[in-house]
Amino acid sequence: MATESDLSCNGLIRRFGKTAAVDHISLDVPAGTFFSILGPSGCGKTTLLRLLAGFDKPDEGDIFIRGQRMNDVPPNKRPVNMVFQHLALFPTMTVGDNIGYGLKRRKVPAAERRKRIARVLEQVGLPGLEQRNPQELSGGQRQRVALARCLVLEPTLLLLDEPLGALDLKLREQMKVELKHLQKQFGTTFVYITHDQSEAMVMSDQVAVMKNGRFEQVAPPEELYREPATPFVAGFVGDNNRLSGEVVTLADNMADIRLDNGEVVRGRLAANELSSGDRAELYVRPESLMFTGEALKDGFCAMQAKVLTTLFDGANSRVEAENGGQPVFARLPQDGTAPRLTTGAEIRLAWDPKLARVYGAGQS
Amino acid sequence: MNASASRLSLWLLLTPFLLWIVLLVLVPHLQMLRVSFQVRESWDTLAWGLQQYQNFFSESYYWRTFVRTGVMSLFTTFLTLLIAFPIAWYIARLARGRSKGILFLACLIPFWASELVRTYGWMILLRESGLFSSWLQALGWVDGPVEMLYNDVAVIIGLVYNGLLFMVVPLVTTLDGMDENLVEAGYDLGGGHATVLREVVIPWAMPGIVSGCIVVFMLTLGSYLTPILMGGKDSAWFTEQIFTQFITRFNWEQGAALGVLLLVLSSLMVWLGLKLTGQSLRKVMG
Predict the structure, then answer these.
(1) What count of Cα atoms within 13 Å lies in the side-chain half-sphere of residue B209?
(2) Is the pLDDT of residue A250 over 90?
(3) Which of A23, A100, A305, B88 could serve as A321's disulfide partner, Cβ 3.0–4.6 Å?
(4) Pick from A53, A92, A105: CB nearest B191
(5) How many CB atoms lie within 10 A of CB A234?
C-alpha cells in the first residue's frame, strides 16, 4: 500500500439484496486534501461514507487508512470522525460537553480538555460558547460546533455527509468558503459527500462523480468541468446543452455532427470508438455559446435557434431557445453586449469547437 | 363571538374538568385530611388531635409496613425500568412497520383483562399445583411440588407485570423521537456501548424514564389486589392496613391518617425523583 495516502480503498462492494449500492469503488485520497464525492441522491454516496466510518461493512474489498486495514475495526476505534447530515449534536449536553465527549473517551484530563475545547472553539470562530446549549445556536454556529467536535480529536480523516444541506442559500455560500479555509488550517483530510455540484467544485481538490454505485470520473474540479469523461459527468457538473445528431466526419480528435435539423456543427471527441454514421451527442455549455451574426470567428461553428424566453437572474441570466425541437440554453452576458431578444426571434449561436464535447449516443 | 359568549363557552368547557377536580379529587382528600385529625372521645363526641398520627409512629407495625411498601415500590419501579427499557428500545428502534404495532399491541393486550384476572393468571402459574411447579417436577429438577406464591418475589413479579405497560409507553415515545445519528455519533467519537447508553441514550430518554417511573411508582405504592393475593403473611402492603382500618375495624380516623401519610409519601417521592434527575413535571408529562 502507498503509505502517503490517508485513505485508500480497492474494489469496495456493498450490496443490498441484489443491487450493489457501492459497486467496485476504488479510491485514493492523499493526505491533507479535500476530496468530494458528488452524485445524485440514491447513487450510493452515503452508503460509501458509512462504510468508511465503520457503521456498515463492505461485502467485498478493503479499506485502508494510513496503510492500516480498517474493515474489522469498529467505528469507535477508527481514526475517522464524521459530521452528520443533521449534525447530531447531543442535545442534552452543552457545546463544551459536546466537544469534550470524544476527549473524555480518550481519557484526556479535565484541565487539558478545557484548554483544547477553548482552543478549537476559537479556531472555528466561536470563542467562549462552551456553556451554551446547541439548541440556542444558529444553524451556522451549530455547523461549526459539529466540526469542532470532530476536529478537536485530530482525526486522520474527517467525513462530512452533506452538512450544508440544511442551511439557507446565503449561509451555505459562506460556509463553503469557510469549510475550505478550515480544512487548509487544520490540514485534515476531508471526505465530503454532496449532491450539490457547486459545493463540490468550490471546496475540493479532487472530486469523484458517482452514479449507480460507481465512480464515473475522479478529477480536480476544473478538469471535470473542461474534460468530462462521460456524458453523465458532462450533464451533472455544471449546466450543459445536449444536441443529438449523426457523425459526419472525424478528424484530429474533432467530429462534425449533423444535427437533426440538418445543420452541421463541430466538437471535440471525448471517446475514440465513434465512426462516421454513428449517433452521437454533442455537449456544449451555455457559457460557451456566443451570439453572432453572419460573420463567424475563425474556427468557430454555429447553429440557428429560436428564442422561447429569457430568464433573468443577474450574472446567471440565460436565454431559452430551441434548435429543431431540442432545447438550448445560452448565457446572456450582462455587460450590454447581449442583443434584445423577443420570443420567436431567430438567433445564431456560435462556439469554439474545442469547448464542446462529443460522446457516442446511449452512453449515459 | 362577543366577550360574554366566549366567556360562557370557556366556562362550559371548563365545567367537567372543574367538577372532576373539585368533587372527585379535592373534596374527598380534604375530607380525609379533616377526618384524620379528629379524635373520637366517645360514641358521639369528637376532638381535634394528632392521636392517629401518634399511633402510626408508636406502633412499629404501621411504620415498618409503610417503609417496606415504599422500599419495595422503589425496587419494583427500578426493576420495571430495567425490563421495560430493552423492550421499548426494541419496539422504538429495531422493529419496523407492522411488527412494531404488533409488539406494542402485545404489551397492551394483558390490560384488556382486569388486574384481578391478571393476578389470578400469575397465581395459576406460580402456585404449588401450578404450571411452573409441575414443569419443574416433570423435568426432574425438583422432587416435590414447589410453592412459588405468597412471598415477596411473587408480589414483585405481579407488580412489575402490572406496571410494565406504563413504563414501556413513555419510553417508546421518547426513544422513537431520537435521531439514529445521535447514537452513531456517540460511537463515532470514540464511545463504547456503555458510554453511548450512559451519555447519549439515557439523557435523551430521561423525560420518558422519569414519567414512566412516576406512574409505575404511584401505581405500585397504591396497588392493593396484587400484594394481597400473591403476598404471604409477612408481605403486608400499606394499602391493606388502610383497608383494615376503614372496613374491618371501622376506624375511619386511623384509616384517613394512614391514607394521608401514603399520599404524602408518594408526593414526596415524585418530587424527590424530579429534583434528583433535574426534570420538571411540565417536561415529563409533556
Answers:
(1) 20
(2) no
(3) A305
(4) A105
(5) 28
Domain A5-234: which CATH class?
alpha beta
List, for residues A27-86, the tens digit of each pLDDT value: 999 999 999 999 998 889 999 999 999 999 999 999 999 988 999 999 999 999 999 989
Look at residue B286 in the predicted model and tell me its pLDDT: 59
DSSP A192-207: EEES-HHHHHHH-SEE
Residues of A in contact with B182 (CB under 8 A): 88, 90-91
User: Between these two residues, B280 and B37, which has the higher pLDDT value?
Assistant: B37
Better pLDDT: A251 or A75: A75
CATH number of A239-360: 2.40.50.140
A86 inside 8 A of chain B by CB: yes
Q: Is A310 helix (H, G, I), strand (E, B) or coil?
A: strand
**What domains, with CATH codes, occur in chain B?**
51-284 (1.10.3720.10)
- The answer for A 106-125 residues in CB contact with B (under 8 A) is 106
- Measured between CB atoms, does B194 come within 8 Å of chain A? no
Q: Which residues of A touch B206 (CB under 8 A)?
A: 92
Give the mean model confidence (pLDDT) for residues B209-238: 89
Rounded-to-integer distance, Cα A46 and Cα A85, Å? 10
Closest-CA distance of chain A to residue B219, Å: 29
Nearest-Cα residue of chain A relative to residue B189: A102
A300–B contact, CB cutoff 8 A = no
Residue B225 distance to chain A (closest CA, Å): 40
Give the mean pLDDT of chain A. Answer: 89
Name beta bridge partners: A301: A351
Chain segment A267-324, per-residue pLDDT in tens: 998 876 788 888 888 999 999 998 887 777 788 888 989 999 988 888 888 899 988 8
pLDDT band at residue A98, thresholds of 50, 70 and 90? Answer: very high
Give the CA distances from residue B156 to residues B18, B117, B128, in Å, rounded to whole numbers and listed in that order: 37, 17, 18
Strands (E), chain A: 5-16, 19-30, 34-38, 60-65, 68-69, 80-83, 157-161, 189-194, 206-211, 214-219, 241-251, 254-259, 264-269, 279-284, 290-291, 301-311, 318-323, 326-331, 346-351, 357-360
- Looking at the DSSP bridge assignments, the partners of residue A259 are A245
Domain boundaries, chain A: 5-234, 239-360
Q: For residue A81, list chain B residues with Cβ-Cβ distance below 8 A.
A: 188-189
Q: B189 in contact with A at a CB cutoff of 8 Å?
A: yes
Among B216, B212, B185, smallest CA distance to B279 is for: B212
Distance in Å, alpha carbon of B246 to nearest chain A alpha carbon: 48
Longest CA span, chain B: 81
pLDDT in tens, A137-150: 998 899 999 999 99
CA distance A219 to chain B (A): 29
pLDDT reported for residue B1? 58
CA distance A120 to A113: 11
Q: In a mutagenesis test of the A interface, which of B183, B187, B188 is the best target, namely the one with the most A β-carbons within 10 Å?
A: B188
Residues 6+ apart with CB under 8 A from B214: B270, B273, B284
Query: What are A254's three cell numbers?
Result: 474533432
Q: Cβ–Cβ of B184/A102 closer than 8 Å?
A: no
